[in-house]
User: Fold these one by one.
Assistant:
Number 1:
Amino acid sequence: MADPARARKLAKRISQIVASAIEHEVKDSRLDYVTITDTKVTGDLHDATVYYTVLGEKLDAAPDFAGAAAALESARGMLRTKVGQGTGVRYTPTLTFVADTIPEESKRIEDLLAKAREADAEVARRSAGAQHAGEPDPYKAPRETEDEDELAEEESRG
């Protein structure tokens, strides 16, 4: 088992190498809009999982996840060779590419937060002129000081 700090450092280096190779050396147009977001390396440094996102050509265009996955799969051997040359480790880790779901999850969370803000605004709007049910002051009023003086006199007599 390797040191966790070494595994993190290797993961970061693998991310850099793979991203650079995709940008400059792999000649596949399906990888033009692919971004490497993270890499995780197992404790024994034998397997690396590379996470990626795919953007659409335009803001309203849907990304081509299937094409990007196929292109990464076909370039896996060349990318592993580049990782081996760039890291200098004894055993070059196998590469597994996984589509990153963080952008979709963050969009879903943002939508939920917006819905919650709208609901809070609606509650605030409805409660703006509302009054409490029952008496305006539901608590018992404290005794007057005269009552306390009388109680003190009764206790001293009794």
Number 2:
Amino acid sequence: MIQLRVMMAASIFLVTGSVAPAYAGEADVVGVKARPDSNDTWRFDVSVAHGDTGWDHYANKWDVVGPDGKVLGTRELAHPHEAEQPFTRSIGGVFIPPDVTEVTLRAHDSVHEYGGREMTVPLPR
């Protein structure tokens, strides 16, 4: 069962989900913090859970995706995170068109590619 908790304060949006143990299946987005940078750019702090087993099977990126399916930003993950689960990484300067009011975060792993749990978050403007 997934529980979502939403907190809004000072234009910061945070979504977290309850995390079951990650096994070397698909990579799941389990938390998102989004906040505006400037001039329609945003910063995203994204937590990913995946049972990384080493270089042969690890979460290797996550994307910010618009409602139309267009990838607006990608955070490459350069190495496995076997001992750090879930882990959080950030990306800033992601241009989000002013008419976009929500985005979806999705994770990718080196074996299954996409398919794990995604999170859609509103962008308070």
